[in-house]
Specification:
Layout (H helix, E strand, L loop, with lengths): L5 H19 L6 H8 L3 H7 L3 H16 L9 H17 L2 H10 L4 H21 L6 H23 L7 H15 L44
Length: 225
């Protein structure tokens, strides 16, 4: 049997790790158990994944790579961001039960929550820069903070979305991005290819944002890869 390249090895171990976490809980997970579950050599698993947290960081990188695979310059800024964030959601969806176990552990694991918060900010910076939105300086930091809020709002919807096409998640993301656009200059004037549809009175809302300030994050876990 030919040796797995690093990418295939990492994906196999991460898949096994989230599968185990979904069955037994995140706190009981170990890299050794995940490697054994996947039939992977322990020595190589130790070299590539020193600890459980490294599984999350590598998973975040893979999710970003999936998001960044296609950033067409022909679409609007908002459309590019929408597409990239939904590709990230698709990666999360493939490991839904394991990620739910992870999210349930966050309230009692502050270091893990902090790690995910930092990783999420890094990922959102990549998304913005791939969409052509500057992220340096004070305004850049506000944009990153705003997209983190959009992402957390979207993940919140995803957690309760059991539809096959993730329609509720897409609607939540679209709504959050439209609200972010209301913060003057947040997306550098990027507009959607279609006019936004009227919002029903019963639609959940993000907190109102003052001029040049992105929306505040909704009640949600501190971060998710």
């Amino acid at each position: 049997m030919p040796k797995m390249d690093d990418s295939a090895f990492d994906k196999a171990l991460i898949s096994a790790a989230f599968g185990l976490a979904g069955r037994t809980g995140w706190r009981k997970l170990s890299v050794a158990a995940a490697a054994t579950e996947a039939g992977l050599p322990l020595a190589r698993a130790r070299a590539r994944f020193p600890g459980r947290h490294s599984v999350l960081l590598r998973f975040g990188v893979l999710a970003d790579q999936a998001a960044l695979v296609d950033t067409s310059p022909d679409s609007s800024t908002r459309d590019r961001i929408f597409d990239m964030l939904m590709r990230r959601i698709d990666v999360l969806q493939a490991h839904r039960d394991g990620l739910f176990a992870l999210l349930r552990s966050l309230p009692t694991d502050p270091p893990l929550a902090l790690l995910l918060g930092v990783a999420t900010r890094r990922s959102m910076r990549w998304i913005l820069e791939a969409a052509g939105v500057p992220t340096r300086g004070l305004r850049g930091e506000l944009r990153v903070r705003g997209l983190v809020a959009v992402w957390l709002w979207t993940v919140r919807a995803w957690r309760t979305d059991e539809s096959v096409d993730l329609s509720a998640t897409m609607a939540a993301l679209d709504h959050a991005l439209r609200r972010a656009e209301q913060a003057a200059g947040w997306l550098d004037g990027g507009t959607s290819r279609s006019e936004p549809s009227p919002e029903p009175d019963t639609e959940p809302d993000l907190p109102a944002a003052p001029l040049d300030t992105p929306p505040e994050p909704p009640p949600s876990p501190p971060g998710v890869v």
